[in-house]
Amino acid sequence: MKKLLFLTIGIFCSLLFSCNENPPDGFDLPSVCNNKCEVAGDMNEFKDAVTIAAAGFSNCICLKSGDIIGDVVVGKQLNIIGKNDGTTHFSGIESGMFVVADNTTIKNINIVSGEHGITVSKAQNVTLDNIEISGISTKTSVLRIESSSVSVKNLKIRNISAGSLYGGRGIVVTGNSSDVKIETSEIDNIDATGLIINGIHDVNISQSIFSNCGFAGVWVQNLNENKEGGNLKIIDSDLENNAAVSIEVLGRSALNIERSTIKGVEKREISMEVVGDGIVMKNSSLSEKAKILSVKDVQISGFERAAIILDGENGKELKAASISGLKILNESGNFGLIIQNAVEPQDLRAGILENPFTENDKTLEEPLYLIESIEMQ
Hints:
By secondary structure, the protein is mainly β. Helices cover 5% and strands 49% of the residues. It has one domain (62-363). The protein has helices at residues 43-55, 358-363; strands spanning 4-7, 38-40, 60-63, 66-69, 71-74, 79-81, 88-91, 97-99, 105-111, 118-121, 126-134, 137-138, 141-146, 149-153, 156-162, 169-174, 179-183, 186-190, 195-198, 202-206, 209-213, 216-222, 231-235, 238-243, 245-251, 254-266, 268-270, 273-275, 277-282, 293-303, 306-311, 321-324, 326-329, 335-340, 352-354. The chain has a 12-stranded parallel β-sheet. A 10-stranded parallel beta barrel has the order 11-14-17-20-23-26-24-21-18-15. The relative contact order is 0.07. Mean pLDDT is 87; it is low at 1-19.
């Protein structure tokens, strides 16, 4: 039976315990560690290191190269730091790493087996830095964030397969309001959706890549019509070779995408309809005055059906969409910018620099089919 380790700092402090004054070579410690950490090379040493670190008031654990086998629950503030060269592996994990403590840092860790990666639940100011999760068959997602504030840097999620009908996902943000920052990260070659945002959350993505996702790159669903909120911002990022749709927003959430590219959207047949779109937004808030959609300096190419579809739902004028510096480049595809179930403002297309499908856009008579199924959590 795999060991389940509960890491708590509420441990009796003994004078026999003291953290290493100087960390060993090959570790990049956060400043909060004050150049002190306890070193562990397996799960038994890990348990001892937690106790010693607690008594020494450092709360920093340095993990050696090799495999740490077992599940981890972080129940109090702790900094778990692997080797800088990426040779610290967690394997044989069933439940994964479960973080419920504020001010936790996990850095330089590879998770290479098991069904789950990392879950952050109701924790604030959590940092995940230089984490790689690869080769996992998951029934859900490999990074799950619930009602938390999390900074994600240098994350790599690769080669993830689906262990169930709703498995094979990269990142899921769910629960009550979360504040998530994802930067310099890469989600590549996964069976399902790269990022699912379920509900009212602020998610900022910068300098990141979502590629070769089997269903969608980024999927947002915020269907509570009685609540405002939910913001997705994508800056200096690339979405490449994802299937069905690169970015889809269902419900009352805002999308701001700048200086980014969408390249290659593979077609999929859904409910006997062929889809393959760059950005899809179905949102009744598009008729309101507040800016709900902003597309600036974006290039979309390689799509099978449409570059952008905006569905206002209620037939009113789209007052909340802004487009500037948009280039639509394609050798296939059928449509550039489609406005349906809404009235298009006269100046909306003024910000489109290139669109070879303008005539197709204007002559479309029937609304295009949209994927409206809700992604399970």
